[in-house]
Amino acid sequence: MAQSLAGIPPLWFWSTEIADVLLASLQPTPHLRQDTELLSYLSFAPGLKELLMLRQVHALEHATVWILSDRAQRVSPASQSETLSGMSTDRGFYLYGQVDLDELRHAAQAALQQITAGDWDLAVHPRCGTNLSVGVVMLASLMLGTTTLLPRHPLAQILGIGVAATLTAQIAPSLGNLAQKYLTTAIPFNLAIERVVEVPHAFNRPARFVQVRWID
Question: What does the pLDDT average to over 146-161?
Fold first, then answer.
């Protein structure tokens, strides 16, 4: 196939086939090779593989926390897994909090198996930072809009701020979940777990790292 001098395919390459691949990556029903196909068509895009891997790792992080929470709840209603927090990278994810290393290994493997087998809701978590970011952006936008459009009278401004806060509280969680589902996570069809190791404490909390690798 001919390539342009800049390493980017010529205009005719952008056919309905590649459009179908892009649209398929946003479909409600994930499929096994969605990211593999996208990467093969857009391999010239810098950082694309790292971005796709980060989205998949993010989903695996959420799924692992769900599994740990579910197991802990069976033992004790006052689950310490509720205090777990994580951070995803394109190499794996960090998990902060009290969790046994072997338990985390088993939970991560179970999470990967369940989420790729069809339990796709595990990719979305209500305590994800995505929800907080969506809420902050939405609140700031609504406050700016209402305070700009409403009269400068203090009572009207206070009313506008109250309306903005109420709408944000009602709508932001759902928008955050949608942002997670379609933007910040992807089903980890291309991930394999390499190892789970203990790393130096962070923020005065125990830390673990779940390292992954990309598979086609």
Answer: 87
pTM attached to this predicted model: 0.82
Q: How far apart are alpha carbons 123 and 55 in whole angstroms?
A: 10
Question: Structure tokens of 107?
Answer: 């939970």
Our count of domains for the chain comes to 2
Q: b/e map of 69-105 (b: 16 or more CB within 10 Å)? A: beebeeeeeebebeebebebbbbbbbbbbebeeeebb
Residue 82 domain boundaries: 48-124+186-214
**Residue 4 pLDDT:** 43
What local confidence, expressed as pLDDT, does residue 205 receive? 86
Report the distance separating Cα 64 and Cα 198, nearest Å: 16
| CATH number of the domain residue 67 falls in | 3.30.980
Q: What does the alpha-carbon distance between residue 8 and residue 119 come to, in Å, rounded to a whole number?
A: 37
pLDDT at 11: 43
Q: For 130, phi and psi rounded to 5 degrees?
A: -60, -45
- The secondary element (H helix, E strand) that includes residue 211 is strand 205-214
pLDDT digits (tens, 9 = 90+) for 99-122: 999 999 999 999 999 999 999 999
Q: Which amino acid is at 40?
A: S
Residue 9 reports pLDDT greater than 60: no
**SS3 label, residue 3:** coil
